[in-house]
Amino acid sequence: MRTASFVLSAVLLGAVLTSCDDGSKAAAEAAAKDLSSGLSSLDVSHAALAGTEASAAQSQLKGIVAGLGDVKPTVTSGQATTSNGTTTVPFDFSWELSGREWKYTTTAEVDQSGGHWAVKWSPGLLAPGLQAGEVLELKTTAPPRGDILGANDAQLVTERPVKRVGIDKAKTPASQLDSSARALASLVGIDPAEYAKQVAASGPQAFVQAIVLRDVPGRTPTDEQIAAVPGAFALGGTLPLAPTREFARAVLGTVGDATAEQIQKSKGELNAGDQTGQGGLEAQYDDQLRGKDGVTVLAVNQNGASSQGGQASASPSPSSSAVQPRALFTAPAQAGTPLRTTLDPKLQQLADDTLASVGPASAIVAIRPSDGSVLAAASGPGSNGYNTAMLGQYAPGSIFKTVDSLALFRQGATPDLKVQCTPTLTVDGKNFQNATGYPEDHLGTITLEDAYAHSCNTAFISQRDKVSQAQLESAATSLGLAIDAPQLGADAFMGSVPATAGTTEHAASMIGQGQILMSPLSAAVMAASVQKGGLVSPRLVLNAGEGEQATSAGAPASATTSAIQSASASPAQAAAKPITPAEAAPLQQMMRAVVTSGHAGFLLSVPGAPVGAKTGTAEFGSDNPPKTHAWIIGIHGDLAVAVFVDEGGLGATISGPLLTNFLTKASQ
């Protein structure tokens, strides 16, 4: 519960208008309008007030709204009416209290005072039926937060038991505070000196939280170990959590206390101590997941008890504290709406586990080609919380030869096309060569399929004059690259393929370098489009917009629910021509050849449907030898997967085993 009080005195505010004093209706309405404007801005310091000095009234007004922070009402006055010699004007009030609107109308009596029109004030003007000496008390109740669900509505993020571990200063002798704080910090694995400072700086009755632990079987430290530290306690509770700390963390985000910045941006919907989304889907869909606070506005006597029968208690008796407050407004809490996603719990956990020991930034994305569902989007520990899987922007290297091949097919080529694979190739003074370890027995005149299977860079660069940069871009969009992903419902980078390029840049494009950029998500989309034989548009969030979804105070303002890249889409990208089954068939054949005769033979061990693949190694930076990104894409039945490791060496040797592990266990 949070409580804010508005103290209304017996003598409230008056307003005087210095214009017409002839008793006209227009003058009465003008006086009321001036007052409503002052109340809306919470500034009556310059008003001419009847019966109260402006300074006293302003001080009184500040006291009334002090508990609301920056919240101000919207107040408008209506038309004046006269009955039996009395002129009245309605005042319409609207308050935004923790995201709930409290609207009501009061009636003000307007009369002449000292030759000028003024409003006659009473407590009932500011709230319905309010009496002198009463206090308005605001109580809010947080609603249950909506779960994030996965495939078949499996609970991904839901309330799970936790233990809040910390030092209770009220139950710890002052002489033991420092030693207890340091001992507890060492026990739970946080900085002892820093935690000791936090404990010392907190109030004498404070419970100073050190850490929140998942309350699962086998948890360490145990309650007994914690209790052995003088003054330390483990308080039970629940928090919205995923199955494990690492589970799709970069995609899902977390839930935590609202920051000062989030509170400021929320326009009154968030207050100190509220739980809100921190990153990922939890932040992007916070409005939908968080629901609406329950709000009650009570009228209570300023001495702590409500008035009886509308009469204020001048001298509260011992029994007056038992009188129930009088509710003026109630809005029940609205539970958050669950967010449904396509993530498959088994595959997501498998992807996270597969990357658990990878040092550099890394990612695995798995998509179901038949409907575009994102089944897993994992970013490894080396990503340090960044969503490498969906937002990473990296040169794709040779996996982009899939785009080259489609562009060549559209110019009449076939997998049997004879091409020249030379050790090196120079274009306008720029020397290109094959990856380290390229087999010498596949040099010379070979087929396009063989060049794809063994990833001959020079063979593909030699075909640069047969496809323009614009045709490469068109082929890329046909496979889902560099175009919007309108069904995704989450922030993503879908790739960047320029429509124009110089001679050497175009040659670099043929091997996925130069200005070509992809994310692991877009690489998986490309593979999925080949496997489907049609353009795949990825989807992750299934019910965006239920509840009141909008970018919340906690969400990044720059993101939309489609591709971040799409804002700069060219006309060719906007008019993407989807790949056809006939065009996909030879690509599927060539991806299979990478496994059966190329350098991804390790995938032959994967059980089930035949596996197709393409490896990629992309150089970057100025080191000698240069660092490389390691890629591999794979197709296996109704599954398309992309694996990426930054600074990873060769795609076949670094990312290949990760894909093998993932596909093998996914088949079990």
UniProtKB/TrEMBL annotation:
Give every Penicillin-binding protein transpeptidase domain span. 363-660
What is one GO biological process annotated to this record? cell wall organization
Give the domain of life.
Answer: Bacteria
User: Mind telling me which InterPro entries this protein's record contains?
Assistant: Beta-lactam/transpept (IPR050515), Beta-lactam/transpept-like (IPR012338), MecA_N (IPR007887), PBP_dimer (IPR005311), PBP_dimer_sf (IPR036138), PCN-bd_Tpept (IPR001460)
State a single Gene Ontology molecular function: penicillin binding
Domain NTF2-like N-terminal transpeptidase positions = 44-133
One cellular component term (GO) for this entry is: plasma membrane
- Similarity field: Belongs to the transpeptidase family.
Protein name, entry field: Penicillin-binding protein
